Amino acid sequence: MAPAMLDLSLPLRTSFCSQAPPKRTTSGSLFAPRLPLSRLTPRCSLATPPRAARSVSWGCDYESLESAYDLQKWLSDSGLPPQKMGIERVEVGERGLVALKNIRKGEKLLFVPPPLIITADSEWTLPEVGKVMKQNSVPDWPLLATHLISEASLDNASRWKNYISALPRQPYSLLYWTRSELDAFLVASPIRDRAIQRITDVTGTYNDMRDRIFSKHPDLFPEEIYNMETFMWSFGILFSRLVRLPSMDEKVALVPWADMLNHNSEVKTFLDFDKSSQAIVFTTDRPYQPGEQVFISYGKKSNGELLLSYGFVAKEGSNPNDSVELALSLDKSDECYKEKLEALRRYNLSESERFPLQIKGWPVEMMAYAYLVVSPPSMSQRFEEMAAAASNKNSTKSTISYPEIEEEALQFILDSFESSISKYTKYIEGQSDDLVSVNAKQANRRLLLKQLAKDLCISERRILYRTQYILRRRLRDMRSGELRALKLFSSLKKFFK
């Protein structure tokens, strides 16, 4: 979807901002700058020693319908108009909104009034807590995360009790996986590193806020309430539910009821503020019959990003936006290694980069990077041009081509495919799990995580297989063409003799 469920991921690097990476303090915090937020996405898992799965004392089980019914009643009593959708259990362990009546294509739904959404400007039940946060110019993300914790800790005293009670207590996004689970189940997928980095960022943000604010006001921010566990929970909620509203000056918000809508990769509709109705709405891009689940888009996300933020993987072959990252690296034994690395660094690239691959192809930046890796010393004057193209900052903006080293560059990429595919195959066929479950609930959770990881790895390996086939065919055609040319040249030589 265009502007919708907030997405903080970048094509090549994890970040809490979809437009540009945030400036960070040495602790990896997101505290200092006020970031231009666009769309949110995944949750994280701590880059700390292994620990047991976390849970908080508020929220509900992921599949709870009772809390969702209570939420709808409270919203209706608070001004939410009658809905054409109702909450139902749509799949095992999932809740969703289904059509109660015929819904036309192009029809506006929801109509959630602004007083029923949570933004950085919303009033706090404990105004003195919000005042301290705003006096310290805390950016929207950690401000909203702290606001959510403050309201949750008040239970019945909070105006948002029914909303918070309907939020999942412990979803399955990667923010809630332990480090040992990430290492065991996602060893083959690059999304593991994204999860660890995101956890590191959230951890750094919490530590920064604890040192700068919480510790200075222990009466307002007691550690039994404002701690790493609750902060991870609140950030997890934001990653999966925060939306950007273009028509409200790009304001980010939690929109109760709207966040019960599930994602479909083929749907393009998104949430926004409708000035005519003065409410948050979305416009359907297809009709729905009574009983059908109504979908929205969380953005053009790969299966890895969906798992990272939302805790699910789209069915194999159903996600047109699916992709997987392939890592390419300079060869340290290359006699031009130093010159190539310097050229890359001038364009904010490193000796090892990841490039997104899709079934339909790969980015031109990846090919430029491969050219640089395999280029001989005689092409040193072209290193700068290759590095610029690899960063998508070449002045001509045209696709560069070096026919004399194209075969070698393609072979280099193909070798990288072979290495990556072997990791996936080893995991999928082996499915090793050395983690010990202490009870039945933990064992069931682990089985679910293993299945999610396996589904992700199968979908990512599928993309690698497809691209590998294309590369092999191109190399075969190149080599057969060269062979034909060589035979023709030899025949001409014999003729003239």
List keywords for this structure.
10% strand; disordered N terminus; mainly alpha; 13 helices; 497 residues
Descriptive overview:
With 497 residues, the chain is mainly alpha-helical. Helix content is 41%, strand content 10%. It has 13 helices and eleven strands. The strands form five sheets. A three-stranded antiparallel β-sheet has the order 3-8-7, with no helix packed on it. It has a two-stranded antiparallel sheet with strand order 1-2. A hairpin with a 5-residue loop joins strand 4 and strand 5. Helix 3 crosses helix 7, helix 10 crosses helix 12 (403-430) and helix 12 runs antiparallel to helix 13. The longest helix has 57 residues, at 440-496. It starts with 65 loop residues before the first helix and ends with a helix.
Poorly predicted sequence stretches spanning 5 or more consecutive residues? 1-53, 491-497
Oligomeric status: single chain
What's the end-to-end separation, in Å? 68 Å
Helix-residue proportion: 40-55%
Taking the sheet with the most strands, its summary is: 3 strands, antiparallel
- Return Rg in Å: 26 Å
What count of helical segments does DSSP give?
Answer: 13
> What would the principal axes of the Cα set say about the shape?
globular
Name the structural class. mainly alpha
Give the averaged pLDDT, no decimals. 84
Task: Classify the beta-strand content into a percent band.
Answer: 5-15%
**How many DSSP-defined strands?**
11
Helix-strand pattern: HEEEHHHHHHEEEEEEHEHEHHHH
The main sheet orders its strands as 3-8-7
